[in-house]
Automatic annotation (TrEMBL):
This is Endonuclease. Keywords: Endonuclease, Hydrolase, Nuclease. One of its GO terms (molecular function) is endonuclease activity. The lineage of its organism: Bacteria, Bacillati, Actinomycetota, Actinomycetes, Streptosporangiales. InterPro entries: Endo/exonu/phosph_ase_sf, Endo/exonuclease/phosphatase. Residues 90-299 form the Endonuclease/exonuclease/phosphatase domain.
Length: 312
């Protein structure tokens, strides 16, 4: 009986992770920690082996193999290098506009992104960024700033055509087409659905991610704070539709982005997970990826150098 107490939680986790849906609100809060559960499942294998419980051993081995199959590929480069016009993308959650403008602009100068997507962009933060010279580096923008956590924005080196923002639960996800030389229009979304911190926000979170779904254009880019990892069903659905994660493609899919400072929920310390992503459409290659620290915010900024299909 004690052996099964060690085996059953990992077996249940493996089964739930394989189901193509988030079966319950509490599971949504837990499934993001699958990269920690996968190596921990070895404990069940060792326990069953030491106890010579062969059925339990078989179940534990299957559970560990299943979890490893979900997690390990993220540490293996998939080879996304292609030829074509480059597009450098940077995204950052500003924590209610708290990131100092000079710090963000310094990062922009160092990384030289062509597109910058921002989440939790407040009107005061947008004004500070303008005052500090961001628009001299990225002169085109779509400003969907608002007080609090629901604002977003897109800044670009190339002309942009604003599209209708995705508005759900007080969160506005800015959208635009960026006219990249040699590639034509590239659809950009500054992703930020509401966080599933409480059960009454679960529907808002699910709907905000579902609004990103649909057959992606060859040159689509979703960049931002997804409030979801690659283990959440809505993100997996986007990947199944043709998007690919820049970090995963470069073998850095286990690089965590939130929180990089101690953060507690109901008295428990939260291990860091990967909530911030750059998802690229099926025609887009990936040449580089990295995470970068900014002051004040609890999210790492995420950078990806993409390669677009040439215009025909």
């Amino acid at each position: 009986m004690l052996v099964w107490l060690a085996v059953a939680p990992f077996a249940g986790w493996a089964v739930l992770r394989t189901i193509p849906a988030d079966v319950d609100f509490r599971w949504v809060q837990l499934v993001g920690f699958t990269p920690y559960v996968a190596p921990a499942s070895i404990v069940a294998v060792i326990t069953a082996l030491a106890s010579r419980r062969w059925t339990a051993l078989a179940v534990s081995l299957m559970s560990t193999a299943t979890l490893a199959a979900h997690v390990l590929p993220r540490a293996l480069p998939a080879g996304g290098h292609t030829t074509g016009p480059p597009l450098r993308v940077l995204t950052s959650n500003l924590l209610k506009g708290s990131v100092p403008g000079p710090a963000l602009i310094d990062l922009v100068r160092r990384l030289r992104p062509d597109v910058l997507t921002l989440q939790e962009l407040t009107p005061s933060a947008a004004a500070e960024l303008k005052r500090d010279g961001l628009e001299g580096l990225l002169p085109y923008k779509v400003d969907r700033s608002r007080p609090g956590v629901g604002g977003s924005g897109i800044y670009a080196r190339f002309p942009v055509t604003p599209d209708e923002a995705i508005e759900l639960g007080g969160f506005g996800q800015a959208r635009a087409s960026v006219d990249v030389p040699g590639a034509g229009p590239v659809e950009i979304v500054s992703v930020h659905p509401c966080a599933p911190r409480y059960e009454n926000r679960f529907a808002c979170w699910a709907e905000g991610l579902a609004a990103l779904s649909g057959r992606p254009r060859a040159s689509s880019v979703l960049a931002g704070d997804f409030n979801a990892t690659l283990d959440h069903a809505p993100t997996r659905r986007l990947l199944a539709e043709g998007y690919h994660d820049a970090a995963d493609t470069m073998g850095q899919g286990l690089a965590t982005t939130w929180p990089y400072q101690p953060w507690h929920f109901n008295g428990f310390a939260i291990p860091p997970v990967t909530l911030d992503h750059v998802l690229a459409g099926p025609g887009v290659g990936v040449r580089a990826f990295g995470v970068h620290r900014l002051p004040v915010t609890d999210h790492h900024a995420v950078f990806a150098e993409l390669v677009l299909p040439p215009a025909t």
